[in-house]
Design goal:
Nucleotidyltransferase, domain 5; 202 residues
């Protein structure tokens, strides 16, 4: 059994039966939604190559996405759009996406392991935060992959709508090419205006 299950095993020993991992993708980009996923894997399921989504190639992430969605006990995924991010701020939008993802689970977990050090409120479900949890917990790693692939696919679809920005390449993050496109074309409807204050004084 890999070390990715150590946090889960500590919880199993305390009587928790169903444990979900929760993670997000897209807190930092200048455009598009923030996406969160919640995943409950079968106990001790070993998925070869499972790791923090940021450490994997796009091809590997997508292959793991298929394995995770096929084998998970349950999973949920939710996106909160750029307008809501601008209205309530990125942290609250992230918590909202996480809450919506957990709400989609077809079974209620006895514990939610959440990547990071900020604790969302999932009502009756206890929460344990884990810094760098996406490389320390199997369930969080699985959630990070579901969130990342879902958001990447969405941004690729937006690239067809707004081809001048290069969303298919940088997924909305603030690359040199993205800033150059913003200077040339201005923002489009899926840009987060609160993230563009330096450019536009929003």
């Amino acid at each position: 059994m890999s070390d990715l299950w150590k946090f889960e095993h500590a919880a199993f020993e305390k009587g928790c039966e169903l444990i979900c991992g929760v993670d997000e993708a897209g807190r930092g980009p200048l455009a598009g939604p923030v996406c969160a996923a919640a995943v409950i894997l079968p106990r001790d399921l070993e998925i070869e190559g499972l790791n923090d989504s940021k450490k994997l190639s796009d091809k590997r992430r997508r292959a793991l996405y298929d394995i995770i969605t096929e084998q998970a006990v349950a999973y949920g995924v939710a996106m909160v759009d750029e307008k809501t991010i601008d209205e309530i701020n990125i942290l609250q939008a992230t918590f909202l996406a996480m809450h919506q993802a957990v709400d989609q689970l077809t079974v209620q977990p006895s514990l939610a392991l959440v990547d990071g050090n900020r604790e969302p409120d999932f009502g009756a479900i206890p929460v344990q935060t884990i810094i760098k949890g996406d490389s320390l917990s199997a369930n969080i790693a699985a959630a990070s992959i579901i969130a990342k692939v879902t958001r990447d696919c969405f941004m690729e679809e937006q690239d067809a709508v707004y081809p001048q920005y290069g969303f298919a390449v940088h997924k909305g993050y603030g690359t040199q090419a993205h800033y150059a496109a913003l200077r040339e074309f201005g923002p489009c409807p899926i840009h987060r205006m609160t993230f563009l204050k330096k450019l536009y004084g929003a």
